[in-house]
Amino acid sequence: MSQQAAKGAPKGVAKGEPPKAAKGEPKTAAKSAPSKVVALSWISLVARVVIGGAIMYAGLLKIGNLQQSVVAVRAYKLPLPDGLIQVIGYLMPIAEIVLGVAIITGLFTRWVVLLGAIMMLVYIVLIASAWARGLSIDCGCFTPGGLLLPDQKTKYLEDILRDIGLLVCGLFVFLFPSSPISVDKWIAKGDPEEA
Predict the structure, then answer these.
(1) What are the sequence ranges of the domains in the chain?
(2) Quick check: 111 and 68 in contact, CB under 8 A?
(3) Residue 106 burial (10 A CB sphere; 0-12, 13-18, 19+)
């Protein structure tokens, strides 16, 4: 057994703490972990604002004309009763706004962003399905939606790629939900168990 081990922790270092780097030794190992966490938290914040902002904006564009939102949903020719299509068309803009605000503010971050990611996945599947079935429609994500005129071209690939990007943002935030600014963080500061 070495003298160091017999005496316990080095002078000035509490038991269980890693020793500080001596003069001249690189400090990269000690600093890299916290800086990585800080970088991930800021990236998570940006990704959260991107997906939340996109979802909220889509809802705001539709909320003023709910009947057109129903037309956009109907254009997908889903095998659903028309009454259910109408309910989806009317509720979707409201759900998008509420979900977008919750994601942006970071309220129950991990779970609301999971809903946002699932929403993107559903949109990707629906757009791909419309494309595969040869429908000529506008997806209705950030536009009124519905059937296209004969001289208009579909933008299925662009729409799918955009939604994949938003899905990636959502999955990133789900994996790394902690960010410098969020309602969750504000709530945690007020909780004595979290302090």
Answers:
(1) 41-176
(2) no
(3) buried
* pTM of the predicted model as reported, rounded to 2 decimal places: 0.78
Name 91's Cβ contacts closer than 8 Å, sequence gap at least 6.
none
Tell me the Cα Rg of the chain.
25
DSSP string of 73-129, one letter each residue: HHTT--SS-HHHHHHHHHHHHHHHHHHHHHHHHTTTHHHHHHHHHHHHHHHHHHHHH
pLDDT tens, per residue, the chain with 195 residues? 545 444 555 555 555 555 555 555 555 554 566 888 889 999 999 999 999 999 999 999 999 999 999 999 999 999 999 999 999 999 999 999 999 999 999 999 999 999 999 999 999 999 999 999 999 999 888 888 888 888 889 999 999 999 999 999 999 999 999 999 999 989 888 764 543
